[in-house]
Specification:
With about 280 residues, the chain is an alpha+beta fold. The chain is built from 5 helices and 12 strands. Strands 1-2-4-5-6-3-9-12-11-10-8-7 form a 12-stranded antiparallel beta sheet, covered by helices on one side. Helix 2 packs antiparallel against helix 5. The radius of gyration is 18 Å and the shape is globular. The two termini are about 30 Å apart.
Length: about 280
Amino acid sequence: MVPSLEALIANLDLEQLDENRFCGTSPRNGWKRIFGGQVIAQALVAASRTVEDRLPHSLHAYFLRGGDPTTPIVYEVDRIRDGSSFATRRVMAYQHDQAIYSMGVSFHTPEPGFSHQLPMPEVPDPESLPSEPELAQLVPEPMREVWMSARPIEMRPIGLGGLSREPRMPIQHVWFRMAGELPDDPIMHQYALAYASDFSLLAVSMLPHGRTVFDPELMAASLDHALWFHRDFRADEWLLYALDSPSAEGGRAFCRGNIFNRDGHLESTATQEGLVRLRTR
């Protein structure tokens, strides 16, 4: 993952190779695989560069292969359709002449309509929760370095949640925001949320089993990812990620999350299925 918000903004500034092809790079941080949120956000940038006067409202993606952080990623955009209200794009990401990622994105012209939403859970304010340095002192030593690694997102989980080995219901609430101010352009906040939406999702599926995604006995990887943008929002202000995992079976875990702002407005929803296996010798 990228080490700061400034580095994330630079990471999302893709090089344009031609009308429908873009190139992105990954931070050299020692990780063996590319963070999934980076590919989601970069692919969304590539798709958005081919659409005018519309914002994305949903994306549906599949992770096909683990990405190589030492090699640039080429994003190819297929302009499926430009209608009067909606536009559709398909994005394929390639490394080493192989597809590593596939995503469909739909864009919508703003219009009035019916409005309703589920209520926001009642949770403590983020200011009342331990900061990341304070929380790091409470987590087991093997996870402390990972928890304190530099990243562009500030997170404050409610309870130890995915950092604890005590079995519990697969429900977790996490406050998060970008670690700095973003430009006012709404699309930048969508890019940032797309990046952040990959955090914490798969971890909630391990809560009933007293394990974490950092467990060396586990093989965990995202298989697919979907994200819906419901309303305008700012990703540099506190957002609540209300997560749960309805099911895990056959080596796969399904997780979902509703993202609310502090006023209780449901801004976005994410779902993800991931591979969760016990490693064999």
